Structure formats: C-alpha cells, structure tokens
Amino acid sequence: MSEAWLLIVLTLDATVRVAAPLILAAMAGLFSERSGVIDIGLEGKMLAGAFAAAATAAVTGSPWLGLLVAILVACSLALLHGLACITYRGNQVVSGVAINVMVAGLTVVLGIAWFDQGGQTPPLAQTARFAPLELPFADLAHGIPVVGHVYHELLSGHNALVYLALAAVPATWWMVYRTRFGLRLRAVGETPAAVDTAGVSVNWLRYRAVLIAGALCGVAGAYLSTAQSAGFVRDMTAGKGYIALAALIFGKWRPVPALLACLLFGFLDAGATRLQGIEIPGIGQAPVALIQALPYALTVILLAGFIGKAVAPKAIGLPYVKER
Amino acid sequence: MKNDLPRWIDVGVIPAVNILLAFLVAGVVVVLAGESPLEALEVLVNGAFGYEEAIGYTLYYATNLVFTGLAVAVAFHAGLFNIGAEGQAYLGGLGVGLAALGLDGVLPGWAVIPVAVAASGLFGAAWAFLPGWLQAHRGSHVVITTIMFNFLASALMVHLMVNVLIQPGQMSPESREFASNAWLPFAHEALAAVGIVVARSPLNLSILLAAAACVFVWVLINRTRWGYAIRTVGANEAAAVYAGIDPRKVIVATMCVSGALAGFVGVNELLGVHHRLLLNFTAGYGFTGIAVALMGRGHPVGIVLASLLFGALYQGGTELDFEFDSITRDLVVVIQGLVILFSGALAFMLHPLALRLWRHARREGPA
Fold it and tell me: Range of A273's domain?
C-alpha cells in the first residue's frame, strides 16, 4: 500500500510542477480572450519570458530581477500584439503567429550572441533560482501517514512561483467575476458596442487585458527557466503555450475549469513520463508519444461538441470598429 | 476609401515597404548581436545565389515553400486560417513513405512515383479534412483544431517511426531506404541526361509539381465555379448562402485541397531527397508557408516570389553559420516572424499614411 500510495503522491507532485506554467499561461489567455483578443502568442510570450528571466538571473544572480525583466519583456510583446490587433485592427491569429515565430528565432540569436553557448544561457547557481519553500511543520508531518505524506510531498516543497500560479486562479476568478473591471472585460468580449455606448473605452480595456496576459506569460516563462530548470534552452516551451490554450478552451474560458484542465493535462504528461519504457501487459511498450498527445485529442473532441460545448466569447477575433 | 489608392501602390509599394521594415528590424537584431548588418546581408545573398550549387539549394527550399504557401493561401481565399500545413505536410510524407515502402519492390518506377505522389496528396488532404469538417459542421474553430492536429501528427509520426516503421536492428527512428526505382530524379541528373551539366544539389523534379500546383491554384481560384464559391465564402458567408452556395461543402473541400498541397512537401523531401521515411523532415515549412502566403498576398505569382525569397533566406542562412560566430541561421526565423508581423498583422498600418501621401501628391501634381 505505502509504495503504491507514495507513487501516486509523487506523480501528483510532478503533475503540479508540470501544470504550474500551464495554469499561468491559461489564466493569461483567459484575460486576453475574454476581452475578445485571440492569443495564439502565449507560447512566444512565455518563451521570451523564459529567456529574459534566465539571461537576467545569469548576469545579476537574482531570480526576482529575472522575473521582473521576464514580465517586462512579455508585456512589451503583449503591447505589440495590442498594437497590431487593437489599434491597427490586424488579424489576431496572424499577429500571434508572428510573435511565436519571431521569439523562437530571437531567443536563439540573442542567446548565442550574448552567451555563446549554442543558444542556451549559462547554468544558474542555486541562489539565482527560485528555491523550494518548505511549508511550516512539513518535516513533522512527514511521519503522519496519508495526510502527512500529502502535506509533505504534495503541498510543501514547491517554489514560490508554483504557489503564485495556484493563487492566480482564485485571483483571476475574483477579478473577472467580482470586480467592475471584470464585468466590463467580459462585456467587451461579448458585445463591445454596448461597452462603448456606456462610455467605456473598448481599446483601453482590451489593452489592459492583453497586458495582464503578458505579465502572466512572463511569470510562466520565468518559472520554466529559473524555477523548474536552471537556465534557458532553445524552444524550451515546447508547445506548452498551445497546451495552455487548449486547457483554456477545455475549461470553456472559465478560471476553475481551466485550472482543472491544466491539472489533467499536467497529469497526463507526468504520467506519460513515468511510463517511459515500461511494459504494459497486453499492449507492450507504453505508447508514450500517444499519451502525451491526449490533451490535443481531448481538446479537439471537446471542440467538436462531444463533451459539452465550448462557446467562445462572441466578439473574439473581431477588431472593434466604432463607426459600425 | 480603400479604392482611392492606385493598384500599384496597394499591391506593389506597400508590401515592399513592409518587407523593407522587416529587414530593417532584423538589421537591428544583427547589431544587437554585435555584427554588421550589411556583412550579414552580403553573406545571405552570396550564400543563396553566389554559386551554382547554392541556387539549386535555394530552389529546393523554395519548392517546399511553394507547396505550403499555396496551401495556406487557398484556405485564406475561403476565409480559413490553416495553421496546420506543418502537420498536413508531415502526414503527406507518411503517405509517400507507405506507398514507396509498400510498392517499390512490386511495381516499376513510373508506376510507384505517381502512386506515391497521389498518396501524399491524399494523406495531407485527409489530415485537413477533419478540421475542415469540424469547422463546417460543428463550428470548431479551424485555427485551434489545426494547431492541435499539428501536435497529433507529430505524436503519431513519433509513435509510428519508433515502434512500427523503424528499420529493424537500427537505433535511429528511420525506415529502410526506398528502392532506387522509387526515387524522383535529381535536377542535375535529369539535366545531365539532356546534356546540360549543373552542380549537384537536392533540387529534384518536384519543382515541376510545384509549378503545376501554382497553375492549378490560379485556375482553380480565378477561373472555375469552385474558385468563385471559395472566394464568395471567404468574402461573405451569408451572401454565399443567398447565392445558393453551401459554405459547409466549400469549407471542407477547400481544406482538403489545402491539405493536399501541403502534403506534397513529402514528395520533395522523401521521394526527392531523403529516400526514406524519417522524423522532422517538415522542419517548419508549414509555418513559413504562412509568411509566404501573406507576403505573396495569396496569389500564385506572389507566392512564387515569396518562396524564392524565403528559399534564399533558408539557404543563405546556412552560410551565416559558417561565416559568423555570433549569428546563425536562426536569424532567418526572426526575419520570417517579422515578415509575418509587418505584411500580415500590421498590414493596415501603412495604409492611412500611404493614402494621405498619395492624396497630397495628387493635389500638388498636375491634376
């Protein structure tokens, strides 16, 4: 019992680690898309954040400074996205793709030019990273069966950014559903004309939403390069931005369901990693690649309307034209 | 308001200025990387056109980009954004591989090659059919589903190559080599056969297929009833319904054509160059196709020009690796992103400015 139990707890623990950046990016996408701006560029903003955080931390030795720069860089990309989609009414998908492609190249070019290590940043010392935080009494709880295990292994011992990611969900929920800003945000994603009629600037609301998305993507990126790993590697987001987007859609553009989707996708990933090279009776080698593709397949099935119906914000993808 | 600008400014000057802006920003990146932008440009141009072999490589890369650029453009005409060209190209390659591996011992070359080409189109189309069908009948957004299908294609190929199609007794996930009767002749071989000697390069007869695809797309979009339906659905779906066009059929069919075009990348890469099934041969051509289609404004002539530019950048980019310590071919990816940004996302940025300048010039000049 204890060994199987420990395995489950450890897998869940890994799930939280894998899911943390997904949660941050999914919440980022939520702000942007609820305001009516499609955000394909989660991936690129995260990647830029990861590079900025690792580069800053490598030079200054401070993970917090790295986090700050990551947020700034991701926000400036978000501003670019806003400029293209909100001010110049360009195609939002095209703009997102442009950011993703540009950042994929830029991080490597600048990485090689500045650090000369094949596109990586120098490995970070322990002090330049976000260290695991022990929750109070975690050591004492270790002795207690079940509850103690959960507390010690699963809840305690993550870095600050994991807790930040988990806190981002109720914060997002509160902002979107319980504040005036949130009400307007949701309205601007459904019928921007009504918001405009009420005398509230559609563009300024959308810019704020896009900037919040940028900041959250920056945190997600910093998590990848200065908390989960010790440095930046080329293409280190590896599709996480798209998985987060899938989780957001899977959660029907709502914070708590999106969190659950992130945890589910994180669990599939953590589980698949654990199954690597293990023989399953009757099947043979575990088809790890196929298990890792499950989030994408599930999202397609959901989008097809076979598990509930995902209805996007009504004005999503449409630039707002006042004189209509 | 839009029609106030003469066509040559709208189709000629504005896109050119957008490309120029993209290259200017890329130049800034080169400066940030601590090198001279002019030197980098010189290496790029020399690497792409400086010698015979380089031109062959440039055309070989351009062949792939014509396929994916046309694929994205055809979908654009119907108002669909097909981000899935990458996955469709991957599956097209699977079709080529399965046909070649299955038939190369059975049929002669003149029979295997057409079957493999058809298989690439068929597999690519099949991979685009589902997103198209879901968009048409279930309202699932084709952008999201094609992104998901890219990842699914990649997972499927990894699974198949690692567990099923791998040549036994070998570590790297590659199939056995196709028998040589299933190889598409290289351009230097074909030209040598008629007495013209050119340097060896991966350029192969797929380029003829690409040329045919361009003509096909132009005729389809501009000269057929189907093309008219595609453009109508793209311009105004509601109007299309009143005109007696079923947008659902058009969407599904357009996605299939788009997927088939992307699938032909498999012909160039596998039948033409690698002669075996392997992983990651699509190498981002599907995404570059987006840049190509945007830059070429969805027109086959524009797409050929854009493909040549990006083919040259791909080939010239490899030279950057040799010539510079601190900039690599990844610079080409940056340029690609900037082109998508300026000629796609920010396409409307210069329009008001151009309009003002044009009006100003007209008032000044002889009216």
Answer: 2-127+141-303
Say which DSSP state B186 is in. B
The enclosing domain of B173 has a CATH number of: 1.10.3470
B344 with A116: Cβ contact below 8 A: no
In a domain, B128, yes or no: yes
Cα gap B358→A230, rounded to integer Å:
55
* Nearest residue on chain A to B320, alpha-carbon basis: A109
Residue B142 · residue B255 · CB < 8 Å? yes
| Smallest Cα distance from A10 to chain B, Å | 26
Beta strands per DSSP E along chain A: 132-133, 158-159, 279-280, 284-285
CA distance B192 to chain A (A): 39
Q: Is residue A45 part of a domain?
A: yes
pLDDT tens digits, B220-269: 999 999 999 999 999 998 999 999 999 999 999 999 999 999 999 999 99
Count of the separate structural domains present in chain B: 1
- In a 13 Å sphere around the CA of B231, the CA atoms on its Cβ side amount to 13
Length of chain B, in residues:
367
Q: Which residues of B touch A249 (CB under 8 A)?
A: 144
| pLDDT above 90: residue B97 | yes
Q: How far apart are the first and last CA of chain B?
A: 19
> Which chain A positions have a beta carbon within 8 Å of B158's beta carbon?
289
Report yes or no on A83 lying in a domain.
Answer: yes
Which pTM value belongs to this model?
0.89
Residue B122 burial (CB count, 10 A)? 18
C-alpha A75/C-alpha A69 separation (Å) is 10
B6 within domain boundaries? no
In a domain, A97, yes or no: yes
Torsion of CA B216, B218, B222, B228, to 10 degrees: 60
Instruction: Please answer yes or no on whether A98 and B328 come within 8 Å at the CB atom.
Output: no
Query: In this structure, is the dihedral angle defined by the CA atoms of residues A217, A222, A228 and A232, taken in order, positive or negative?
Result: positive
Residue range B324-351, pLDDT digits in tens = 877 888 888 898 899 889 888 887 788 7
Structural domain harbouring B109: 12-354
Helix or strand run (H / E) with residue A111: helix A92-115
> What domain count does chain A have?
1
Contact present, A218 and A75 (Cβ < 8 Å): yes
B247 by Cβ neighbours in 10 Å (0-12 / 13-18 / 19+) ranks as: buried
Chain A residue with Cα closest to B284: A101
Q: What is the CATH number of the domain that holds A51?
A: 1.10.3470
Interface contact B159-A84, CB threshold 8 A: no
Under DSSP, is residue A174 helix (H, G, I), strand (E, B) or coil? Answer: helix
- Domain membership of residue B328 (yes or no) is yes
Tens of pLDDT, residue by residue, chain A (324 residues): 577 777 888 888 889 999 999 999 999 999 999 999 999 999 999 999 999 999 999 999 899 999 999 999 999 999 999 999 999 888 898 899 899 999 999 999 899 888 888 778 888 888 888 888 877 777 777 777 777 777 777 777 788 899 999 999 999 999 999 999 999 999 999 999 999 999 999 999 999 999 999 999 999 999 999 998 888 998 898 889 998 998 898 888 999 999 999 998 888 888 887 777 677 666 666 677 888 888 888 888 877 877 666 677 888 888 888 765
